[in-house]
# Entry
Amino acid sequence: MKLWQKENTTVSQLIEKFTVGRDKEFDLLLAKYDVQGSIAHAKMLGEVGLMTKQESDKAVEALEQIAEEIENSKFKIENDVEDVHSQVELLLTQRIGDIGKKIHSGRSRNDQVAVDIKLYLRAEIVSIKNETKELFDLLIAQSENYKDKFLPGYTHLQIAMPSSFGLWFGAYAESFIDDLEVLSAAYIITNKNPLGSGAGYGSSFPLNRLMTTQLLKFSALNYNSVYAQMTRGKTEKIVAMALSCIAATLGKLAMDCCLYLNQNFGFISFPSELTTGSSIMPHKKNPDVFELIRAKCNRIQSTPNELILLLNNLPSGYHRDLQLTKEILFPAIEELKSCLQLARLMLSNMEVKDNILADEKYKYLFSVEAVNELVNKGIPFREAYQQIGNKIENGNFDFDLSNGLHHTHEGSIGNLNNKEIQDLMQKTVEKFA
# Structure
């Protein structure tokens, strides 16, 4: 069954296979949202007189039954049915007869799939926000747990200055705030209703688009019917950009963990059950989880570019090219959620080594501390820098760490500002409300 098929017409099986592609696979993810959109549309049709109140109520009741079947994994798209929209309409017509044939009045598959995707993306954005917030909370907790454990800081992958695990965990926590700022912008753009725009040019029916906006809990309409269709692809691209920001932070964190687990660094360890071994080297504990997180996050960061290549030369109006956004974006969403969950598992089981900076190779980490001590005694900075530099060159530089480090400014080793970082995150999370 095809919503557009006329009597006595057939379509080449080769054409059908090519044009449908993987759509059915991804349409199953949209099924619950297609029903939600149809329920709102049926209620609106009853309100404006395109259905009677009794017909509208009957359609809504049948659609709610279909929604329950979807929730209980009893819904499928039959082999001879083109897509989820056709399947839902077919089930509705089978159950309530000709009333079901009225459900498509005043809408096109173009605005139907547009609203389905927006409802799906809105829910997935919230899910990713929640996963990211859980990882953020863990990072803040670990920052507090290990705030007194020192760690070498690097620039150019060369030993630079002393850092701490408190500072390291907290840095990634704060990075996720900016990532969620971008995600919240994607949420705001996604949370607008395209339903009622039809094929992209409105309708001569007296539709009440504000009603469906309220029923579907969108914050606003995409008012212009042409632009409502232009949001197809654009919305997916903006969401992908937000995902890529989160993936970039997570990928960098995974790379740090791969380095820090390396024996030449040896800063952290994990229980054996969270690492893998070698078929010939019995000593190996490989960071496969972090390597795969790094790889998957790199691939997620390519998603906006793939969508750009797909969409960039399209004029206004609907084009079948837009069908392919699903197979680009939907798997990336699942991959990112998986990466966030696995990162949380790994970091909650991370063990941090003691007395890392006691190793002789890290003594030059304290060169800046030594310069600052001289400056505090009244020696001009450039002169102090030269004195310490000469000691390093002559091989007689030493620094006594027993007195501790005295970093007190905001965001330093001794003043992490984790409470302020948590407050910033809370303000960002509220933007999704």
Remarks:
- DSSP finds 14 helices and six strands in the chain.
- The two ends are 40 Å apart (CA to CA).
